[in-house]
User: Fold this.
Amino acid sequence: MPYWKPTAKWEGLDVFVIGGGVSLETFDWSLLENECTVGCNDAYKLGAKVCKICIFGDPKWFRTHQRGLVEYEGLLFTNHGEFQRTRLDWLWTLPRKPHGLWTNALAWNTNTGAAAINLALILGAKRVILLGFDMHLSNGRQNWHENLLNAPDKAVYKKFIEGFERLAKDLDRVFPGREIINVTDDSSLDYFPKIACDKFWNERKNS
Assistant:
């Protein structure tokens, strides 16, 4: 699919970003069926009812999952340069920037989760709600899903967190009036306000 012209299809709404942390292993995915969602990498396996948009940034990951992605009924995005001239009519692209936040490109900031946040903001999110942004290993595990590509490595999280710092510094300048809220219990990511998962969903049910 050719270059995607950014469109604020979710203007003023909450957009949930589905990360990869082990904290989501027992998450009730039905809570997201009526929400706006951007899922990272393997989140596409949850189906389009839960993961409306999926984003990836690693060509090796794409090649590993391409067969399953063909069947995915949601929208698939990437910012990797290898795909900027793709002939696949089911893959949307935006240019990649190295860091920060952009209105017409997706910044990488060292990880797919950060690119997903940038995409959610471009889509018009008033609040970006982070789920599964653990930023640490849990009992030696890295993901709630089966990671077919990488062995658990605690060293990667320092790099990831540094990327989020650069993203956070750009938020008020590039997307004034927007919020990023981390709804991930025991998260090591401290650049955004945190709300305990149970508290957040109880308040949402009663609002």
Notes: The CA atoms of residues 85 and 178 lie 32 Å apart. The chain has four helices and nine strands. The mean pLDDT is 95. The beta strands are 14-18, 36-40, 53-56, 75-78, 91-93, 96-97, 106-107, 127-131, 179-182.
